[in-house]
Each structure stands twice: as structure tokens, then as C-alpha cells.
Amino acid sequence: MRFTFPTFAAALLALGTTVAIAQPTSYTGPNNAPQAASAPGSYSGPSNVQLITVKQLLDTGRDDQIARLQGRLVSFEGDERYIFEDATGRITVEIDNEDFPAGQTINAEQKVELTGEFDKGLRKTEFEVDRLSLIP
């Protein structure tokens, strides 16, 4: 049996299932869409993940290496990609929208800490962020 979107949506509604629709981040007006369940909190204690500079990561980092970076997001490049900068250099980072702190806006002057995985390939080198924290 083949389902079309309207058939699938009607089936979900008939079952009493609510479909959450995300509000675009660029829109700040009222939102009447059903809200998704809130995300669980995150850990904010000590970490054994190595704090490293952009230069160290680019010079000696291994593919799939877990690391922490501290610096600033200096520009948005599109498609969840940003340019991250510390005192030693710049690197492209990929940050899923849900990894930003809820309810907080981050500008190019705000210091942040990124925890994630280094993706070192033949055609691209970037840092895939799993966690973003603001540094006061």
C-alpha cells in the first residue's frame, strides 16, 4: 500500500498523534504550531576531552578525533556551516540548529566552546559540533 503525505498526516491525526512543526529561526513572530517536547538538559561539569587550538587541530589532528575548541563563530556560511576562529586560525564547523543553546542568540563577539569531532578528508576538513556552550 502506498501512502501520500495527506493520507499519512490524516492517519497520524486519527491516531491522536501531534506533529511538531519547527519555527524558522529567522521568523520571530507568533507561532501557533504544536510544540515539540523540550530537549533534555546537558552536562556542564569537567571534561576529559582535550582542549586544542585550531592550528593544533589542523596540523596534527586525526580524522574522527574528539576535541574541544574555544573561540568565536565569526560568520555563517549556509547549510549549518560556520567559520570558527581562535587566536591561532580559522576552521569550518558544522553545527546543527538544535545544538545551539535554547533561547540564546550568539553573535560574532561571543566566546563559545565547541565539543565535537574532527572530520579530515581529502576534499574537506571541518569540525562537526556535538555541543556548543557559551563562555562568560
How would you explain this protein's 3D organization?
Residues 1-22 form the signal peptide. InterPro entries: BOBF_sf, CarO-like. The protein is globular. It contains two helices and five strands. A five-stranded mixed beta barrel has the order 1-2-3-5-4. The longest helix has 10 residues, at 5-14. It has a domain at 54-134: Bacterial OB-fold (OB fold (Dihydrolipoamide Acetyltransferase, E2P)), CATH 2.40.50. 12% of the residues lie in helices and 33% in strands. With 136 residues, it is mainly beta. β1 (66-78) and β2 (81-86) form a beta hairpin.
Topology record:
Layout: H1 5-14, H2 54-60, E1 66-78, E2 81-86, E3 89-94, E4 111-120, E5 125-134
Parallel strand pairs: 3-5
Antiparallel strand pairs: 1-2, 1-4, 2-3, 4-5
Keywords: Signal
Organism: Alcaligenes pakistanensis
Protein name: NirD/YgiW/YdeI family stress tolerance protein
